[in-house]
């Protein structure tokens, strides 16, 4: 991101939504990591899910940021 994003510019509902999304992603990654540690590997499907979920979250967040700058 070329500009600094300030959370103070977000509404309370937007911040709560952002936090829920982050917690959900973190929880999913932790669950997959527990399985990976027990098996010493990660399935391709799990890796792809993490990758796709994080990419979608980042794009969604960037769209919110850039839509505010117009």
Descriptive account of the structure:
The protein is mainly α. It has helices at residues 12-39, 44-68.
Detail the poorly predicted runs: none
What's the total number of strands? 0
Overall average residue pLDDT? 78
User: Which secondary-structure class do the elements indicate?
Assistant: mainly alpha
Distance between the termini: 15 Å
Q: Which term fits the overall shape?
A: elongated
Share in helix: over 70%
Which range does the strand content fall in?
under 5%
Order of helices and strands: HH
Care to give the gist of this entry?
The protein has 70 residues and is mainly α. The protein is built from two helices and no strands. Helix 1 (12-39) runs antiparallel to helix 2 (44-68).
Please tag this protein with its features.
single chain; 70 residues; mainly alpha; elongated
What's the helix and strand layout?
Blueprint: H1 12-39, H2 44-68
């Amino acid at each position: 991101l070329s500009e600094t994003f300030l959370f103070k510019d977000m509404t309370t509902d937007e911040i709560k939504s952002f936090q829920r999304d982050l917690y959900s992603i973190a929880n999913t990654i932790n669950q997959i990591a527990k399985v990976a540690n027990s098996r010493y590997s990660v399935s391709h499907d799990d890796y792809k899910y993490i990758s796709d979920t994080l990419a979608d979250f980042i794009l969604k967040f960037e769209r919110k940021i850039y839509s505010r700058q117009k």
